[in-house]
Amino acid sequence: MVDTQLQLWQILAANGAIGLGALIQSATGFGMGLVSVPLLALIDTALIPGPFIFSAIFQLSIMVFQNRRNIVRNQAMYMFSGVLPGTILAGWMLGRLQGEAMGTVFGVTILVAVVMSCWGIRVPLGRRSLWGAGTLCGIMGTISGMGGPPLIIVYQDEPGPRIRGNLGIVFLFSSLFSLAALSRNGLFDFHHAALGLLLIPGILTGTLLAPPFARFLDSDHLKPVLLFLTAMGAVALILRDLL
């Protein structure tokens, strides 16, 4: 059973972290996991992955509704077909990890996500690449709450509205699958959901503030800064477990 008695500074800091992530993702189409997960892990590892994923569903629902006309059903279905086996595999992995190793696993997974985002490779948009990206999304999203980088690599050359629509719908259902896998392994229950609800004010604030700030957020210049901060947070998380 997870302790839901966070101190006030932790609740405020966690809402600030997830609010920043929600603002960036609402404005650019990606980034909430990359920004928020390392910060939440440093505040309290109980906030990830379950509570973060639970709260992220609210932001994803809004993003999908706003971009629903740009969803390409065939592409989404190919990704869904990979998300489910990826989530099942991640659930199996989590069921065999020791509690004290979780911080290190989160940190390493985050660094893998950063490397994938920095790689800048071009993958043709097709059935195999969509299925593979969906599988990696299911694995990484369930373990750390950050399933975006594989899908971003596949969709990086697509128009913004299509990115937000297709990634949003896949993230949304992937999050639901991940919560089911976490629950199956005893890593998500009522207490984790209560922690997730504490993050909703930050989610809503970041989402509502996104439109006026969107024109100031240049993703090409913002991305390197975000990735650097994310990598530093992941390293700090790993060192905290090892030292």
Could you describe the 3D structure shown?
This protein is an all-alpha fold and 243 residues long. The chain has one domain (8-242). 78% of the residues lie in helices and 0% in strands. It contains eleven helices and no strands. It has helices spanning 8-28, 32-43, 50-66, 73-94, 102-119, 127-144, 148-155, 160-184, 190-198, 200-214, 219-242. The chain is globular and about 45 Å long. The chain starts with 7 loop residues before the first helix and ends with a helix. 49% of the residues are buried. The mean pLDDT is 83.
What would the keywords be for this entry?
243 residues; mainly alpha; 0% strand
Estimate the helix proportion, in percent.
over 70%
* Largest beta-sheet details: none
- Run of helices and strands: HHHHHHHHHHH
How much is the average pLDDT?
Answer: 83
SS class: mainly alpha
Domain module tally: 1
Q: Work out the oligomeric state of the chains in this entry.
A: single chain
Unreliable runs = none
| Spatial separation of the terminal alpha carbons | 25 Å
Number of helices: 11
Beta content = under 5%
